[in-house]
Design brief:
The protein is α+β, with helices and mostly antiparallel strands and 177 residues long. It has one domain. Strands 1, 2, 3, 4, 5 and 6 form a 6-stranded mixed sheet that branches. Strands 7, 8, 11, 12 and 13 form a 5-stranded mixed sheet that branches. Strands 9-10 form a two-stranded antiparallel sheet. Helix 1 packs across helix 4 and helix 2 crosses helix 3.
Length: 177
C-alpha cells in the first residue's frame, strides 16, 4: 500500500474548505483560493470575484466563520483584491432573494430561490440541483475514501442559517415527471 493511501483522517476544517471549494467553486465567475493557515488555530478561505454585486451577495449569505473546537475557519469574499463586508442593512425576503440570485445565478448547482410564510415565520429556500458533490476526504466508510454529499446539504454547511428574521433552508429540486 502506498504512503499516500495509509490510514489518516482529514481534519473537519479541510472538509469545510472542500465544501466551499466544490459548492461555490462551481461558478465560472468566482475562484476559491487555497485555504491559508493564519495561525495554529486560525485558517482563512478566500473567494474571489470581479463582480461587486456578486461579492456583496456572497459576503452577506455565506457563514463568515466556522468553529471546530479551538480551530476557527474564516471565509472572506474579495472583489478586485479587496475584502467585501456583508451588507449591514436589515434584510427582507425580497432583498435576500435578490442576493441568492446574484450570488448563485452563474453557479451550475443553483436552480432558483423561493420563499414561504409558515405561520408568520419567513423561510427562504434556495433550491439546488439533485446531484452529489464528491471529493477525496479520507472517509473510511467509503471504499475510495470519498465524501459524497447531496448538493443542498453541502450548501447548508456553508450558508448562514438565518439572516435577520428570515430562516434559510437549502432544498433539492424535484425531478419533473
Amino acid at each position: 500500500m502506498s504512503e499516500a493511501r495509509t490510514l489518516r483522517l482529514s481534519p473537519p476544517w479541510h472538509t469545510f474548505f472542500n465544501f466551499v471549494k466544490h459548492a461555490i467553486g462551481k461558478d465560472r465567475q468566482v475562484k476559491v483560493l487555497e485555504m491559508k493557515e493564519v495561525s495554529e488555530v486560525d485558517f482563512l478561505i478566500q473567494i474571489e470575484t470581479k463582480d461587486k454585486d456578486k461579492a456583496l451577495a456572497l459576503a452577506t449569505i455565506l457563514e463568515p466563520y466556522k468553529e471546530f473546537g479551538n480551530i476557527k475557519v474564516y471565509v472572506e469574499v474579495l472583489c478586485f483584491g479587496k475584502v467585501v463586508m456583508p451588507s449591514e442593512k436589515k434584510q427582507n425576503v425580497c432583498t435576500l432573494m435578490n442576493f441568492y440570485e446574484k450570488a448563485f445565478g452563474a453557479n451550475d448547482y443553483f436552480v432558483h430561490v423561493e420563499f414561504k410564510d409558515f405561520f408568520g415565520n419567513m423561510m427562504l429556500f434556495p433550491v439546488f440541483k439533485k446531484e452529489v458533490i464528491q471529493f477525496f476526504n479520507d472517509n473510511l466508510a467509503d471504499l475510495y475514501q470519498n465524501f459524497n454529499g447531496v448538493v443542498a446539504d453541502v450548501f447548508k454547511e456553508i450558508l448562514r442559517f438565518q439572516i435577520d428574521e428570515v430562516s434559510i433552508r437549502p432544498s433539492t429540486a424535484v425531478e419533473k415527471v
